[in-house]
Amino acid sequence: MRQDDEGPVAADALDRVTWALRRTESAVQALKEQRLRPLGMAAAHYSLLMRVHADPGLTGAELARRLNVTPQAVASLVARLEDRGQLERRPHPRHRHVQELHLTDAGQDALRVADAVVAEIEQQITDKLGPEDAARLTALLGQAADAVRET
């Protein structure tokens, strides 16, 4: 990589893979927020419901780690979704001070509707890239994630 004599970073710094990932994630998140808002849901709610669906019984701390957010953020989201009747806490079978998180029927219904919206966004991307390039991009992003985890 070439260092730019005029500044602290290389001239092509904004053309890096990491910036492309950031721009893409930002665009996708903004579209999710826009399209989920009419459902009374934020993208963070969708992510939390999806993660609990995929791993029922997670604790708040485990959920925070998997979503890469603070435990306080998870606690706030959990409380909000619990108030909506979409999430419930159940006692852990072995640890009396630990509570597991589970979707309620209302949570499953909300997730189903929200996931249809997110699937439309996925389809928009696939339509633009074509199915083969979309599958290739998915594989490449998986490889990139693995490369970062290896360090």
From TrEMBL:
InterPro entries: HTH_MarR-typ, MarR/SlyA-like, WH-like_DNA-bd_sf, WH_DNA-bd_sf
HTH marR-type domain location: 14-146
Domain of life (superkingdom): Bacteria
Designated name of the protein: MarR family transcriptional regulator
SMART domains: HTH_MARR
PROSITE patterns: HTH_MARR_2
Lineage of the organism: Bacteria, Bacillati, Actinomycetota, Actinomycetes, Streptosporangiales
Organism encoding this protein: Actinoallomurus vinaceus
